[in-house]
Amino acid sequence: MKSLVSVLAVGAVLTVGAVVGQDTPSYSFSDISLYNAKTPERFGVFSGEPQTIFWNNGRIELSKPVTIALNGFVVPRTLAVNGSNTLRLELDSLNAFDGNFVGDQIQVRAKRNLQSVYYFDGTKWFTVTRGVKINEAAQFKPTPRLSPLGAGVLSSEEALSLAKYLSPKGELLLATLPETEASDDRLNLVPAPSAYRRSVLAVQYGVPRSPAPTISNLPSTAVAPKPPVNNPPSTNLIVPVVQTLEVGNNAFYSGGETMTRFDDSETEFAQTWKLVSGNQIPLPVAPRIDFSKSRVVTVFLGQRPTSGYGIQYKSASLEGNILQLRMQTSSPSPDRMVNQVMTSPFVMLEIKNTQFVAVQVEFDEK
Questions:
Q1: Cβ proximity of 109 and 95 under 8 Å
Q2: Summary count for the chain: helices (H), strands (E)
Q3: How many angstroms separate the Cα of 177 from the Cα of each of 32, 97, 149, 203, 220?
Q4: Is 66 left (phi over 0), alpha (psi -120 to 50) or beta?
Q5: How far is CA 260 from the centre of its chain?
Q6: Does the N-terminal or the C-terminal CB of the chain have fewer CB atoms within 10 Å?
Q7: pLDDT tens track for 81-123
């Protein structure tokens, strides 16, 4: 059996909540704040088993997914919240940054610490920068990407749903902020979720144009523009050197679906390392990666109810600027004795090549 998943992403970090009133929490929670200066929005997305939970503002009934987009933002296969698609919460306005075009580059002036900035031209997504510190500015030429996957700690389905939600709004800039920049607190949910993910995002609708390019007014700390990686497609396959960094069955990732992370910086890799090794105390030291020569791709099979599941690397090839990965997955046979314990198989690969901007994964199942 084969399945195909495309992803352009960086790492994510999950935080385990304290267990209240039950031994094994049966739901997870994704808290998505979308700041802007006028109409900020906050969405709460639940996954897991239908149930009743409580928070400081009242009672929440989680039921099977609804099919109608009652509030415009829908993540497939997530639980309905009091009959709606998501939990909607009030959020204070926040102007985190200003951005505008200077020639064919985008200049970003940070009013808060920004981890990354993405651009949507009304049709396609682009990476602008991997970070700008508060009160500084940077200017970059956007490079193509597949989606805003990698913004905050959004899952692949959440990122695609956010892209669908934002696309009718036209041209925009989307920034990822550290959770410490949020103006609101985490929710106190009872019983606590097995995982609480917080994505703090800021959006600017519309990107003004300057008449002529200039960077003379930028601080000396601004990062010089980097040329985009945009290799033309090629019929000649390139086989990159691939090294398996880690493989195991006890990742911190608790989602039920397969997920791929694509890291091209130390900051992003540190987040993925926590997602891989967060169940270990103390957290082991991450491998050292030279990101001027390599990229890291991590493939998670997803949480499984027993032992006996696994994932292994088989082969890789480079077609233009797309990395093609083939993975082998396995599951226990019906007559095999297995341990009744939750597992989360994964494999982490160092790709000794930097000439790709997206990853396509094909799974072969035994």
A1: no
A2: 2, 23
A3: 12, 10, 14, 11, 23
A4: beta
A5: 9
A6: N
A7: 988 888 998 888 889 999 999 888 999 999 999 988 999 999 9
245 alpha carbon, distance to own chain's centre: 21
Q: Check: CB of residue 40 under 8 Å from CB of residue 96.
A: no
What is the token pair recorded at 321? Answer: 């600027």
The pLDDT value recorded for residue 170 is 92
Find out whether 178 and 113 touch, Cβ atoms under 8 Å: yes
List the one residue out of 201, 176, 196 whose CA is nearest residue 186: 196
Please list, in sequence order, all residues whose beta carbon lies within 8 angstroms of the beta carbon of residue 46, skipping any fewer than 6 positions away.
27, 28, 29, 30, 60, 62, 78, 79, 81, 87
Q: How far is it, in rounded angstroms, from Cα 351 to Cα 340?
A: 35
Contact call for residues 295 and 264 (beta carbons, < 8 A) = yes
Cβ pair 254, 195 in contact under 8 A: yes
- Per domain, the residue ranges of the chain are 15-223, 232-365
* Interval 231-266: pLDDT, tens: 444 445 688 899 999 999 999 888 777 888 888 888
| pLDDT value at residue 334 | 82
Tokens found for residue 168: 């009718």
Which residues 6+ apart lie within 8 Å of 308 measured at CB?
330, 331, 332, 336, 338
